[in-house]
């Protein structure tokens, strides 16, 4: 099989490419140049998309013994990931750029280009598993639960899964590093990237402020009483506790949390932890990793990239997915994805539009 290996310059993608080559596939490595100015993105351990990463990827390809190329996808990445990120925050939502990158860049732009160049599939270093069944391919959680990335892959369709390989899904991360060392890959001890790769210093509020400008407004409680002021709604996300800088303490002395963000009237509403509890959500833009559910289903849901699963009941309502929680869930943020699971299998995902709080009157 002729496969294209997306090589980020890290240890995971390098070992994934090496495994595919060792299995006898014709492998070609490609590094995605995603930054308009690579030096403006992070370097070292703090992110990806740097010149250092492209050089590490090239050196790994040389050790593996496969051809290597660099594809410039900076404009596509800026439009579909970076600008989307800014626009979502401006609208009072909390996006997940990694999920959007997988959907729009790695498994849309890259896979489409790979197929046009007569490759059979794309291989990445994501921690997830693909299981072959009589009905088609299924996406499952990785063996290493701490590194599992099935949440950010929940946007992949059955057609995309049919052309994807995740060779590391059955391997704990520690063993991947040991394997890289045995293979003579210099990235064996390279630290994992974290946070948002296109935020140069890791300061998301300042990154957004540079692009959205000042947008001051009021911080109010759930009764509408003004408690303080803020410098922009984009500096907040639902469930946030730290950095509120409210001068007036709560009557009960307990911390306050962000309940709602309204960029139209530039208001941030805060309240107690109890007021955060959500009993239902409505989500749109569903993406199914397999057959579309035909009826109401009892399943599990993950609401954040590193969040725990919760028990839910989900059903389709036209182009919407309605999710009811068995027990109220905290800090459910519009803009994030709700990913549904049947055991370890990913059913699909959708983007959260609105929530119904447990304290609301029916």
UniProtKB/TrEMBL annotation:
InterPro entries registered for this protein in UniProt: MnmA-like, MnmA-like_C, MnmA-like_central, MnmA-like_central_sf, Rossmann-like_a/b/a_fold
Keyword field contains Nucleotidyltransferase: no
Pfam families: tRNA_Me_trans (PF03054), tRNA_Me_trans_C (PF20258), tRNA_Me_trans_M (PF20259)
Gene this protein is translated from: mnmA
Domain tRNA-specific 2-thiouridylase MnmA-like C-terminal: 279-352
Gene3D superfamilies assigned: Adenine nucleotide alpha hydrolases-like domains, HUPs, Translation factors
HAMAP family: tRNA_thiouridyl_MnmA
Residues given in the record as ATP binding sites: 6-13, 32, 125
EC number: 2.8.1.13
Gene Ontology molecular function: tRNA-uridine 2-sulfurtransferase activity
Site positions for Interaction with tRNA: 126, 336
Region (Interaction with tRNA): 147-149
Name of this protein: tRNA-specific 2-thiouridylase MnmA
Biological function: Catalyzes the 2-thiolation of uridine at the wobble position (U34) of tRNA, leading to the formation of s(2)U34.
Enzyme class: transferase
Residues covered by the tRNA-specific 2-thiouridylase MnmA-like central domain: 206-271
Major site of localization recorded for this protein: cytoplasm
């Amino acid at each position: 099989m002729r496969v294209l290996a997306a090589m980020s310059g890290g240890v995971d993608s390098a070992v994934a490419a090496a495994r595919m080559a060792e299995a006898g596939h014709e492998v070609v490595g490609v590094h995605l140049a995603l930054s308009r100015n690579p030096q403006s993105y992070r370097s070292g351990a703090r992110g990806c998309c740097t010149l250092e990463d492209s050089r590490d990827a090239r050196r790994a390809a040389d050790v593996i013994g496969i051809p290597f190329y660099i594809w410039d996808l900076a404009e596509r990445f800026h439009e579909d990931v970076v600008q989307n990120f800014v626009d979502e925050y401006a609208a009072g939502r909390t996006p997940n750029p990694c999920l959007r990158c997988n959907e729009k860049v790695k498994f849309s732009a890259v896979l489409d280009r790979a197929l046009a160049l007569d490759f059979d599939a794309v291989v990445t270093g994501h921690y997830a598993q693909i299981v072959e069944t009589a009905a088609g391919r299924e996406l499952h959680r990785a063996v290493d639960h701490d590194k599992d990335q099935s949440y950010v892959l929940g946007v992949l369709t059955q057609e995309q899964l049919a052309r994807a390989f995740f060779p590391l899904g059955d391997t704990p991360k520690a063993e991947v590093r040991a394997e890289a060392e045995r293979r003579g890959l210099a990235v064996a001890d390279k630290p994992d990237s974290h946070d948002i790769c296109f935020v140069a210093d890791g300061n998301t509020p300042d990154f957004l402020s540079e692009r959205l400008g000042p947008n001051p407004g009021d911080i109010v409680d759930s009764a509408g009483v003004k408690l303080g002021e803020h410098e922009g709604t984009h500096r907040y996300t639902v469930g946030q506790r730290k950095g509120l800088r409210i001068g007036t303490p709560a009557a009960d002395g307990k911390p306050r949390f962000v309940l709602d963000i309204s960029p139209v009237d530039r208001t941030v509403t805060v309240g107690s932890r109890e007021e955060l509890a959500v009993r239902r959500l409505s989500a749109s833009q569903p993406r199914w990793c397999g057959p579309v559910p035909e009826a109401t289903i009892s399943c599990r849901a993950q609401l954040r990239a590193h969040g725990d699963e919760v028990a839910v009941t989900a059903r389709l309502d036209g182009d919407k997915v309605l999710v009811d929680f068995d027990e109220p869930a905290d800090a459910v943020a519009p803009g994030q994805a709700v990913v549904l699971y049947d055991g370890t299998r990913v059913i699909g995902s959708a983007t959260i539009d609105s929530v119904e709080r447990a304290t609301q009157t029916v």
